[in-house]
DNA sequence: ATGTCTTTGTGAACGCGTGCACAAAGATTG
DNA sequence: CAATCTTTGTGCACGCGTTCACAAAGACAT
């Protein structure tokens, strides 16, 4: 997410809610699969299942695009593929540059899914002079010095940042200055960009942390009901949890000493007891 | 959101809203940086800026954790780092397995950010016999046959799927059957999992498509008012120029959108972004 | 044509998340 | 100790997004 600005009337880009836009690619993928199997039509129910969403939601999403379905029958697969593609702007060519050709950048460059939908890798850019000219994914890596020229010459408006965190903001600024208005950021940093520039971030570490949170919750909660089975699974919860009923189960076991922080605070909180994984 | 499956009805895992949980890692990162600079305290305003969010939101988020701030002063950095880490479950060790050691899988294995927060790569698994034993990121790749044993022996509860789309569901099922309850999916497929299992997905293709949508909108908009180059992306969106009759729905050539800037990520849960290939 | 059956499209209710604005709490100064 | 200043914590209102539930629309059979 971008930092510079943060608010906006929740932008309904054109009457199409942001949440819906985020789901369109999902529908498109499911539809494409159906199309390849030559399925002529699908009901909202079937398509919703394939896309992993609720059918009512899907119908409402489609209603923002227009009335493309036929009552009693469903949606014409081919037609819908076309409409969604057009709506997403996939009927045109989108040259993309990837900056930072390390492990991740190289993996992205090799990713086939790129080209499959109108996205074309126009160039791979890296700051390391040693990388210059070296072929990655059948394409020579170019030095950062060329960045502006590349962007301009190829009319690139979408940039992918896969550099180390420390270089991200600077690269971002150069990209924006050169004309890029959409950025996909893989570096673990908050990018600050001017208005009008879209930033989406992909952060591995954050995703894992969110999973860990839920995992921890699950471990603490199942502990009570967990008599003996699966004792080897790293979830030997402390006996402190008398009743971890789902209600609000807020078994407060005080937190261990303020650790490195000698603060004298006392959180009204403190929860999960010691869990010890392998 | 993260999965194609519906976990609990937006259950507040423990009184902590999902949206807040998704931001905690962001705060943690900003706090860690401050900690390394030996900054003792921060105000909600400073921290919010560093994390790229609104200060009111940050304060509200923290209020779900408890009252850890001091009015008139701010928050104790070290203490907050500890509290958030504990809340996220990062004070414990989380063994993780990565299945599918292709370009992406290898990149993930080499990703340093993994270990930095309690996540330890316990094993790299691939179905290709030729890969077996081959060292990646200083660790021998193991064959899929060993999957169940690895999960059990290491008490792994978090799995990362970086296989091709076609193999994802099957791998997912084996992981779950073996005891994994949280999955980070990089394969472009909707995974179906039983209740109690969390799935978060990272899909590069989807992220790019969302950017393309906004990019297209921006282009169309600029075309209409091309006069002023690319400098008027005001935030004072005049609702005035809303698209023509909303009922158009047809105009194949597509009408330029109205509205302005674009929303960065959002998403109830997730909003969160997630992305990637396979 | 008429009736029945299927599936869409959507009005309305509801819940979550966001942001404002301010009272309360504590630090700080005189 | 009182006054002032700073910053937190939160009540409240608002809007987006989700879901339900159903009328409308069309296909299909008789």
From TrEMBL, chains A, B:
Binding site for NAD(+): 100-105
Disordered: region residues: 235-278
Main subcellular location: cytoplasm
Gene Ontology MF annotations: DNA binding; DNA-binding transcription factor activity
Entry annotated with the keyword Repressor: yes
Keywords of this entry: Cytoplasm, DNA-binding, NAD, Repressor, Transcription, Transcription regulation
Assembly: Homodimer.
Name of this chain's protein: Redox-sensing transcriptional repressor Rex
Organism: Streptomyces scopuliridis RB72
Lineage: Bacteria, Bacillati, Actinomycetota, Actinomycetes, Kitasatosporales
């Amino acid at each position: 997410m971008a930092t510079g600005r943060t608010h906006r009337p929740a932008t309904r880009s054109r009457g199409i809610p942001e949440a819906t836009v985020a789901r369109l690619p999902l529908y498109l993928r499911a539809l494409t699969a159906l199309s390849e199997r030559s399925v002529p039509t699908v009901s909202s129910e079937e398509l919703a299942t394939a896309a992993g969403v609720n059918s009512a939601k899907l119908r409402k999403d489609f209603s923002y695009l227009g009335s493309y379905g036929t009552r009693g029958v469903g949606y014409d697969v081919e037609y819908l593929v076309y409409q969604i593609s057009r709506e997403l702007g996939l009927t045109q060519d989108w040259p993309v540059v990837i900056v930072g050709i390390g492990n991740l950048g190289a993996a992205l460059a090799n990713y086939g899914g790129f080209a499959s939908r109108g996205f074309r890798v126009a160039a791979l850019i890296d700051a390391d002079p040693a990388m210059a000219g070296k072929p990655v994914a059948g394409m020579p890596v170019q030095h950062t010095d060329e960045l502006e020229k590349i962007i301009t010459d190829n009319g690139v408006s979408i940039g992918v940042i896969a550099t180390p965190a420390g270089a991200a903001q600077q690269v971002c600024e150069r990209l924006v200055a050169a004309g890029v208005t959409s950025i996909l950021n893989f570096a673990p940093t908050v990018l600050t960009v001017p208005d009008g520039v879209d930033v989406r971030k992909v952060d591995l570490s954050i995703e894992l942390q969110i999973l860990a949170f839920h995992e921890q919750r699950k471990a603490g909660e199942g502990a009570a009901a967990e008599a003996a089975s699966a004792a080897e699974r790293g979830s030997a919860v402390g006996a402190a949890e008398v009743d971890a009923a789902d209600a609000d189960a807020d078994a407060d076991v005080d937190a261990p000493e303020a650790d490195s922080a000698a603060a004298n605070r006392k959180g009204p909180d403190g929860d999960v007891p010691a869990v010890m994984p392998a």
